[in-house]
Design goal:
The relative contact order is 0.12. The protein is 72% helix and 0% strand. It is built from 17 helices and no strands. It has 329 residues and is mainly alpha-helical.
């Protein structure tokens, strides 16, 4: 697989950045191209992610790290994808690393991992509005001493670096994005609503995810109640009402684009009004929740595949864990 697209390989690469496949090819050259060796490559990335997570004890407690690990390893989709030669697990891990380093304001590592995420798959662009949210949040919390324009310029560097790939394609092939893939993008509301509903159910309703979604709602409502948060009564009422509305329309033949979005929005308001143990936890939860909604909405415009929700599963595990342990306290 060439580093840059070539006419002979364009029908194989289909315009995608090929960082994952090139990395897997290098892995195969070093460790051999047997099935065990090649399937060990994405597994190695997952193990590296958990090893790094285990060292973040100044941000997450040991019990929180354990909970995140159990939620991810116990998730059927994440578990099966963790050893398959597909880019979604790498994409999800790189996206969370980029998000995490932006929250921690470690901008060199953010630029590195967000650039790698964008060169893994184009859908990584969904993270950028979340980064803008973090910058605005920092400006509000830190006041005039925080220069948003300067940080926006720094945070845009990965987008500029990734754009080189698509500029190259435009120059040599006459298009920025593979034309066949552009045909998959739908702007028909009914089609978008159908795919949005399928993605939403895969994240929040399928298998044991329904249990986690229901308990997450309970935790948020009870935390708001016990913390005596401002406007807790209307917020809790909106969350419960949205959940009941979502249940009323939640069948495989019905669209839940409106009820599901209302539930995500009302939960987001509830999450914003919770008092967290640290500002870092607050930004991780709120940023993760914004990413989850944005990624589901973005995916609804494109081709549907369950494996595409891997990044959402990772972000959801962190948000759920922080809220769970806040409730336990």
């Amino acid at each position: 697989i060439p580093l840059l697209p070539e006419p002979s390989s364009i029908d194989l690469t289909r315009g995608h950045p090929m960082f994952f496949h090139i990395s897997a090819s290098v892995w195969g050259k070093i460790f051999g191209d047997s099935l065990i060796s090649l399937h060990s490559f994405p597994l190695f990335i997952c193990i590296g992610f958990f090893v790094y997570l285990s060292r973040q004890k100044d941000i997450f407690s040991a019990s929180q790290i354990f909970t995140i690990t159990v939620l991810l390893v116990g998730n059927e989709i994440f578990f099966t994808q963790s050893s398959l030669l597909l880019p979604e697990v790498m994409l999800g891990i790189f996206l969370f690393f980029a998000f995490y380093f932006a929250v921690m304001e470690r901008w060199v590592f953010y630029i590195l991992f967000y650039t790698l995420a964008l060169y893994t798959k184009e859908s990584a662009v969904v993270l950028f509005p979340v980064i803008i949210f973090i910058l605005i949040y920092n400006r509000i919390s830190q006041g005039g001493k925080y220069c948003v324009l300067k940080m926006l310029a720094i945070s845009s560097i990965p987008l500029l670096l990734a754009s080189l790939h698509f500029i190259y394609q435009k120059k040599f092939f006459g298009w920025y994005f593979y034309p066949l893939h552009m045909n998959f993008i739908q702007f028909d509301f009914l089609e978008i609503a159908s795919k949005y509903s399928r993605f939403y159910r895969a994240v929040c309703d399928a298998r044991l995810q329904y249990f986690f979604n229901a308990t997450f709602i309970i935790y948020v409502c009870l935390i708001l109640h016990f913390q005596n948060a401002k406007r807790k009564v209307p917020i809790i009422a909106c969350i419960i009402g949205s959940f009941i509305l979502m249940l009323a329309f939640n069948s495989t033949h019905n669209s839940i684009v409106i009820s599901g979005s209302l539930l995500i929005l009302s939960l987001g308001i509830g999450l914003y009004n919770i008092r967290y143990d640290s500002e870092t936890h607050r930004k991780i939860v709120l940023g993760s929740w914004l990413f989850i909604f944005g990624f589901i909405a973005f995916s609804a415009l494109n081709f549907y595949s369950t494996r595409y929700i891997i990044p959402v599963i990772i972000f959801y595990a962190f948000a759920y864990t922080i809220i769970l342990h806040k409730f336990i306290k």
